[in-house]
Design goal:
Blueprint lengths: L16 E9 L4 H15 L5 E7 L7 E8 L2 H8 L2 H9 L4 E9 L28 H26 L5 H27 L1 H4 L2
Antiparallel strand pairs: 1-3, 1-4, 2-3
Helix pairs in contact: 1-3, 4-5
Length: 198
């Protein structure tokens, strides 16, 4: 297995990190590949910060497998990548699977991944689409952030309005951030896909 150059983890910050790995496998070894991928997922699931994984193939007979896995932050990703469990898992495929490309992505681009391109339990037949233009990403984020911010601040003014500014903002931000990241932004992104990807 070759060893592609990876960006330093310390440049990734504390945002969730998605790692995209392209691997080449003989199409006749699909069954072994599926078992190997499932074994890796089962191992990674035991690590704190693991958010999920999946894979994509351009076609059923393609030797290329595009694999994704996501961790809550660079620290939890580093723990998985330095673990003896992962080393054992990679060693099990030595000589059968060639790793050709590794990418790490953080920030808002990860919110705009096409959900249909990741399939964890069955073969996927679609190519991963590129991220939409940044100005479209900005518009969608604004569409989510404005009503959520207005609602959160209205509720805060009627419930904790007598709090000092800093703790009030910390609480509002702590509630808004996961709601925006995991609920509202993915929901709006799926419904705006026709415009984002056009």
């Amino acid at each position: 297995m070759s060893a592609p150059v990876r960006p330093p983890l310390d440049t990734l910050g504390t945002a969730p990190v998605t790692v995209s790995v392209t691997r080449h496998v003989d199409p006749s070894r699909t069954t072994e590949m599926l078992a190997w991928v499932q074994a890796g997922t089962s191992l990674a699931e035991r690590f704190e910060g693991f958010l999920g994984s999946g894979w994509v193939r351009p076609s059923e007979d393609s030797p290329e497998w595009h694999m994704l896995y996501r961790f809550a932050d660079a620290e939890s990703l580093a723990a998985w990548e330095a673990s003896p469990q992962r080393a054992w898992w990679l060693e099990a495929a030595q000589g059968q699977i060639e790793e050709t490309r590794v990418e790490r992505r953080t920030g808002i681009e990860g919110w705009f991944d096409e959900p249909a391109t990741v399939e964890s339990t069955a073969r996927a037949m679609v190519q991963q689409a590129p991220a939409p233009p940044r100005w479209k990403q900005m518009v969608v984020i604004f569409m989510v952030f404005l009503p959520l911010s207005l609602t959160a601040n209205w509720v805060a003014s009627h419930t904790i309005g007598d709090w000092h500014l800093v703790p009030r903002v910390v609480l509002v931000t702590t509630v808004m951030t996961p709601l925006m990241t995991y609920v509202f932004l993915p929901w709006v992104t799926r419904r705006m896909a026709w415009w984002l990807r056009r």
